[in-house]
Amino acid sequence: MKKILIGSLSAVLLTTVALAYEIRHPNLRDAHHDAGSAIGHIAEAQKMNKGVEFGGHAERAVELLRQAQAELVEADQWNDAHHK
Length: 84
Hints:
Blueprint: H1 2-19, H2 26-48, H3 57-82
Helix pairs in contact: 1-3, 2-3
């Protein structure tokens, strides 16, 4: 249970960082948006499934998608720093 809570909290932090930055590269921005859409679809699936978490796999997928969003932000920041 502690791992899930810690993972969820770190995912929220990563998402907050990702949302605070506007991605400039159009492809990275699209990928970030698509990951956000996937998170929304997973949340809807959980809601339709009356809160059943799909054995924890759906929550893990959301965590990984949020990590991917944070990596896309890092990629865009790196790109900005190295291609001015």
